[in-house]
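Quick sanity check, Secondary thiamine-phosphate synthase enzyme:
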Amino acid sequence: MRTEVITVRTGGSPVVRDITAEAARFVQSESDGLLHVFVPHATAGLAIIETGAGSDDDLLTAIDDLLPAEDKWRHRHGSRGHGRDHVLPAWIPPYATLPVIGGKIALGTWQSICLVDTNGDNPTRQVRFSFLTG
């Protein structure tokens, strides 16, 4: 297994950050296997979605509808509504595993690997890429 950790700057507001290019660079010298992507944070997740056509903004809107940033959360440290950030990984998991064929991630035409971060209190994230072969 080969692994690498990258740092992603997410800033101070909710964001969907496309990390497909970084993942593609990580596997470009590999043959066939699996790419496992993991975010070791309690308030971020990974989604495989289309970006650039509004889907990333739609995802953030859906998160706000499902998990509003209000003071209703029991987990109350951090900024207002931060408790919802700790619930996010139950809906958007902190991991994804994708096939790699001939050094290329086998994504669909419009699919991208995206880091989803609603926690404005933590402006940088770590993402671990691991390549597994059989």
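Posting the structure with no commentary besides this: The domain at 2-132 is CATH 2.60.120.460 (Jelly Rolls).
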